[in-house]
Design a protein that fits this description.
two-stranded antiparallel sheet; 8-stranded antiparallel beta sheet; single chain; mainly beta; 12 strands; globular; about 10% helix; 2 helices
């Protein structure tokens, strides 16, 4: 039972488990102080008008259900971690050679300072662009976009867990655990 005040705040950790039998969960490094920024799109509708009704539409048909997504900026750019998340190659001297494409799909979990967690069961993670610039008042980062996709084997795209609830345990014991 959730006894919190329901306020979810303060990003403490972002982890990602790419699809695939051998993959392991990877914790993203430091995220900029902006944390997660919602970046999805609202549903769109087409209004239907009738000649006999002059004061507005008679119906509205959903043409796009919209999407849920988040953006964040990864500011800890260490070669070993970047390889685990996106691929590419970590060189012996610590340099990173990026992959050709920056797109992975898997399970993503956000943990908040408030104790809450949120899991996206099929997240498409992609690099959007470099962020922040390289100067003495900021640090270079990689913009990351996380889009919620429909899982083939689950009804739900995401879950929000109250403080004290472990997502891994909850997902296996929840009502209708497969869905």
């Amino acid at each position: 039972m959730d006894n919190s005040n329901g306020l979810i705040y303060g990003l403490s950790e972002v982890s990602f488990k790419p699809e695939g039998e051998e993959s392991e969960e990877v914790i993203f490094g430091w995220i900029s102080q902006d944390g997660l920024v919602p970046s999805g799109s609202a549903a769109s509708f087409t209004d239907i008008f009738a000649a006999q009704v002059t004061d507005g539409p008679v119906d509205s048909i959903m043409t796009d259900p919209g999407s849920d997504a988040f953006d964040f900026t990864l500011i800890q750019l260490k070669a070993d971690n970047l390889v685990k998340i996106f691929g590419g190659k970590a060189e012996a001297d610590g340099a990173w050679t990026p992959p050709t494409t920056f797109v992975k799909t898997g399970v993503m979990t956000f943990r908040a300072q408030s104790g809450h967690s949120m899991r996206i069961f099929r997240a498409r993670v992609s690099k959007s662009q470099f962020q922040n610039g390289m100067n003495m008042t900021n640090v270079l980062g990689i913009g990351i976009n996380v889009k919620m996709l429909k899982p083939a084997d689950k009804e739900r795209r995401s879950r929000v867990y109250p403080p004290g609830v472990d997502p891994d345990t909850s997902d296996t014991t929840a009502d209708g655990a497969g869905g």
